[in-house]
Amino acid sequence: MAAWRTMSLGEVSQNHDARRVPVREADRKSGPYPYYGASGVVDHVDSYLFEGLHLLVAEDGENLRTRKLPIAFLASGRFWVNNHAHILTGNHLSDTRFLCYALSIADVGSYLSGSTMPKLTQGNLARIPIRLPELAEQRQIVGLLGALDDKIELNRLMNETLEASARELFRDWFVDFGPTRAKAEGRPAYLAPDLWSLFPDRLGVDGAPEGWSVYTLGDLADQHTGSIDPAKNGDEVFEHYSLPAFDNGASPSLDRGDTIKSNKTLLPAGAVLLSKLNPEISRVWMPTSAKDAKQVASTEFLAFVPKAPAGRSLLFAMFRDATFRQIMEGMVTGTSKSHQRISPPALRTVNALTGTPAIFQAFERFASPIMEQMLANRLASRSLAGTRDALLPKLMSGKIRVAEAESQASTLL
Q1: Which of 303, 264, 263 is nearest to 287 (CA)?
Q2: How far is CA 116 from the centre of its chain?
Q3: 10 Å Cβ neighbour count for 405?
């Protein structure tokens, strides 16, 4: 512990704010480079200002107080930053990633200004105290915490691949009608014979496979509207599916009832959540099986439970498909772009899917194992994140050393 010392952030970092340039949305040209704001990527543009690993810290916004999203995060590669995020790198005394972990648990409340909109000025940011060991130990700490984060990221990438395969299958069968088109054009079969036989030989006059039926969303799922007021159960801990939690990695938070404001939807088993807010943003969530805590969701999420002949995987893939999203975008109400919503009764009556019970069941046989693996990966990531969050303050304060922390995390790595 003798090697640890407390210094100001300004003493252990280099600030690059002078290089940031805001660009109005109307003036941005779409491209491959992330465009960062206070809480992460807000767009992609055709040029970049920074290259390599940098630490971004929110300069303004209510999130500086609520911290529902990280106020400090890493950006690497080539990217652009507007004037709502400070840009830092570690100097000869510090590791940039170590500073990110340190700020993630730092109390910045007394360094904020502005009564209406919180602001963390460059000067106040530089005053924040950082406790740190020698550079070699910083890198050991970062190595352990980074290994946990890397495994979380690997699970996320695996889930992206798994979901993409389920969505591709859904689109081929139910949107492009690939097998039927192949039959009609005399092309060879690309599915097993028992599956191939489920698809008609030609398209009907409506452009769908001949003999298939049109199903409304109400035919495929029941919307669950049962609610609960968690505040009336103040000491109880709830698994809370909120919009901020979805946007911050799609991991529900564990919140005491007395910290949850307003009524929430009490989730039944097997639900699929679909956001009715701003449908141009795809927010579709498949909760894991409930364990010790009741599961509740923001009322901005609609909770659907599949009913025969549909299954949960079919609902999830349909909600995530671009065609269904276009239907939703055409149903919005509200003039403000940031608060456009879907009418649930109207949504339940739209023609959502064309198919047959046999095809729906076949899809579920293929997609259900994929979805189960995705849920398992998400549970593993939650365990990894829980271990990281437990070790983080102890490592960053020097209360435990890396060797002890490694033994605690060894079963997960």
Answers
A1: 303
A2: 28
A3: 23
Residue 313 in tokens: 């995987």
CB 170 within 8 A of CB 317: yes
Q: C-alpha angle with apex 214: 209 to 215, nearest 5 degrees? A: 140
Q: Give the Cα separation of 65 and 117 in Å (integer).
A: 10
Q: Report the chain's terminal Cα–Cα distance, integer Å.
A: 27
Q: What is the pLDDT of residues 192-244, one digit of tens each?
A: 999 999 999 999 999 999 999 999 999 999 999 999 999 998 889 999 999 88
Backbone angles phi, psi at 377, to 5 degrees: -65, -40
Sorted by sequence, the CB contacts under 8 Å of residue 261 that are 6+ apart come out as: 231
Task: Evaluate if pTM is beyond 0.90.
Answer: no
What single-letter amino acid sits at 329?
E
Question: For 259-281, what is each residue's pLDDT tens digit?
Answer: 998 999 999 999 999 999 988 88
Cis peptide before 133 (omega within 30 of 0): no
pLDDT in tens, 296-312: 999 999 999 999 999 99
CA-based nearest residue to 104, from 57, 40, 151: 57
- Say if CB 252 and CB 287 are below 8 A apart: yes
